């Protein structure tokens, strides 16, 4: 279920979605994610909260409530949206700073990631204290549907003692995934299909959109695409990636 008072504005509905608290791939801050009932699609919970002087309530009616059944009221005026996210970003955020010198069974890799992020969470908490467990990390990385995303950014080897495979984060694979994301976002057709989001960012990146050359427009597209990708990867990964761009 969502946090108290939340109403998901998602179409189609997620059904029996599983809510997880995982580190945001860029900031490491605990964030809500939802897995659909097939465990194949991942969504990030985004909250847009107005400034207090301008806050208003939302009156939300579900499609099936038009016959007279009550909807819901969001008293704080915040808009909560479940936005699709490629699971590979979350997986990369979990594994980026885990020791990648050796191959590890998935269970060991997941436990190392959980321990690392629990320690960081404790260090970021005022007063410090002993690290608290981060219970959703190991189950998330162990899901069968996440195996394909692990393979996108990890080298693997067969290991009978590890129930089949051992994993090690591969920078070459990571860079390949990030390059493909940037290339797709920078395509003219992608920007044209989203004129009020990508298109607007590209126009803002140009000194003069009216007089910009084709080369200047394409450079702006690439820069915007890179910034968008970097917003969903750890800063350490972004710095290394930009060094090789």
UniProtKB/TrEMBL annotation:
Superkingdom classification of source: Eukaryota
Compartment annotation: Nucleus
InterPro entries xrefs: RNase_H2_suB (IPR040456), RNase_H2_suB_wHTH (IPR019024), Rnh202_N (IPR041195)
Domain Ribonuclease H2 subunit B wHTH: 89-239
Keywords associated with the record: Nucleus
Coiled coil: none
Domain Rnh202 triple barrel: 16-86
Pfam families linked: RNase_H2-Ydr279, Ydr279_N
Signal peptide: none
Gene Ontology terms: cellular component: nucleoplasm; ribonuclease H2 complex
Biological processes annotated in GO: RNA catabolic process
Chief subcellular location: nucleus
Role: Non catalytic subunit of RNase H2, an endonuclease that specifically degrades the RNA of RNA:DNA hybrids. Participates in DNA replication, possibly by mediating the removal of lagging-strand Okazaki fragment RNA primers during DNA replication. Mediates the excision of single ribonucleotides from DNA:RNA duplexes.
Descriptive protein name: Ribonuclease H2 subunit B
Species of the source: Malassezia obtusa
Lineage of the species this protein comes from: Eukaryota, Fungi, Dikarya, Basidiomycota, Ustilaginomycotina
């Amino acid at each position: 279920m969502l946090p108290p008072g939340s109403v998901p504005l998602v179409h189609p509905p997620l059904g029996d979605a599983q809510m997880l608290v995982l580190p945001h791939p860029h900031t490491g801050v605990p964030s809500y994610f939802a897995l659909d009932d097939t465990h194949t699609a991942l969504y990030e919970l985004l909250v847009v909260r107005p400034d207090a002087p301008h806050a208003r309530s939302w009156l939300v009616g579900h499609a099936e409530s038009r016959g007279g059944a009550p909807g819901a009221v969001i008293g704080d005026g915040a808009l909560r949206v479940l936005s699709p996210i490629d699971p590979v970003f979350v997986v990369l955020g979990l594994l980026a700073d885990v020791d990648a010198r050796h191959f590890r069974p998935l269970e060991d890799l997941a436990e190392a990631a959980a321990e690392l992020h629990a320690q960081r969470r404790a260090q970021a908490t005022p007063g410090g204290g002993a690290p608290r467990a981060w219970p959703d990390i190991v189950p998330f990385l162990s899901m069968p549907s996440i195996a394909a995303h692990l393979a996108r950014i990890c080298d693997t080897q067969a290991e009978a003692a590890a129930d089949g495979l051992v994993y090690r984060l591969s920078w070459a694979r990571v860079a390949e995934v990030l390059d493909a994301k940037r290339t797709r976002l920078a395509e003219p057709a992608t920007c044209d299909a989203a004129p009020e989001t990508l298109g607007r960012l590209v126009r803002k990146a140009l000194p003069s959109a009216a007089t910009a050359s084709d080369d200047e427009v394409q450079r702006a597209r690439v820069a915007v695409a890179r910034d968008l990708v970097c917003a969903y990867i750890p800063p350490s990964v972004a710095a290394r990636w930009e060094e090789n761009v």
